[in-house]
Amino acid sequence: MELEKLKYKVNELLDKFFEQEEFKAYFPVGLHLTNKKLRVFIDGDEAVSYQICRKTSRFLESHFDEHQWLGQKYTLEVSSPGIDRPLKMARQFAKHEGRKADVTLKDGSSISGKLAEISADQIKITHKNQEQTVEIQNIEEMKIIVSFKS
């Protein structure tokens, strides 16, 4: 099956899976597919557990095995995106309120600071006692700054 068509089918399956009541707090944020390897990244309104990844993987495997979309031998990885991957969806921002972040805007500029407040359509970033409001629609991506200082 053509890779683009397969990506479309996988995205349809994921949408169906995350519509279930048990999984409504989670959502797909990335899909990487080559001939025999599929990597799915999921995030959530709360932390993504190993059990959520396993259940997502088993759901996808059942369809792949039944329809042989990837043949008999393939690799499937389902995981959370990890703290080092950029956040690209507004739904991902809320759980990081209070943390420091680098925000890249669609115009190419960037802002760094503490995520002071996050609403449905904008974020407020504070840096050196200054506050800046950014419309979410203007955000290209956000990276959380990981600090191991206590």
CATH topology assignment of the largest domain = GMP Synthetase, Chain A, domain 3
Strand content: 35-45%
Q: Tell me the number of strands.
A: 8
Proper CATH architecture of the largest domain: 2-Layer Sandwich
> Which sequence of SSEs, written as H and E, runs from N to C?
HEEHEHEEEEE
Describe this protein's structure:
- The chain has 150 residues and is of the alpha+beta class.
- The protein has two domains: 77 residues, GMP Synthetase, Chain A, domain 3 (2-Layer Sandwich), CATH 3.30.300; 55 residues, SH3 type barrels (Roll).
- It is 25% helix and 36% strand.
- The longest helix is centred in the middle third of the chain and has 18 residues.
Short description:
The chain is of the alpha+beta class and 150 residues long. It has helices at 3-18, 50-67, 90-93, and strands at 26-33, 37-44, 75-79, 100-105, 110-118, 122-127, 130-135, 139-144. The strands form 2 sheets. It has a 5-stranded antiparallel beta sheet, with no helix packed on it. It has a 3-stranded mixed beta sheet with strand order 1-2-3, with helices on one face.
